[in-house]
Specification:
Strand content: 15-25%
Oligomer: single chain
Structural class: alpha/beta
Number of strands: 12
Distance between the termini: 52 Å
Number of helices: 8
CATH topology of the largest domain: Rossmann fold
Radius of gyration: 19 Å
Length: 237
Amino acid sequence: MDAEVLIHTDNVEFFLLLKHILETEGFPARICVDPKELLDAIQTEKAVTILLDCSSGGEEAPGLCRQIRTAAGDEVTVAALANSLEADLSRDLHAARVDTVLFRPLKPIVLLSLLKRLHTKVPHDPRPRAAPELIFRHADIEMNVTRVRVTRNGHPVSLSALQFRLLLHLMRTPDIVHSREDLIAAGWPREAEVEPRTVDIHIGHIRRALNRYGPNIIRTVRSVGYSLDEVAKPIHM
């Protein structure tokens, strides 16, 4: 299997930037939003490098790094992205056997240095390589996480990065009613102060974007939250 870089982050825009840099250097990249997905991907994708984005709160990162080492061994290069003021976190990450801690604002020369070290680990293959695509499907909706693309009945659906994260959270477990607090945790950084009403507004944007190409599929559970219907419901005018 071709070499792969796994990027653990909930920031889709940041992932796209790193994906472009890495694939320019010949390393297909895949996003892993939650730890379980990352640990599963280590077993299936045989990654040579893992990038952990700890910049939005890395309290759980050292523990995750230890799990990565247990799952992948020392053959995998693990790099963490942290805020420059988080000295304690940096020490904890190194203690958890992280190979490199990259600080924000990210300096391209530091990332390129990491890539050069990767070239010494991975046999050169001049043939173009394509990253495996992570795709979620529910009813007539398809979410391609790798390409950051949403379609419904074959039509592209335009969403912001935040709305993409919210819909992805619903698509992962569509039969569960997700509270507004769950959606805030999935869509916004930990330090953000978000009112529940803000979630309703963005869900409304997602609903209107999806409804352009099919009937209503987002179910509102009053005083609880949102889920996806198994079969899209007609919109009553």
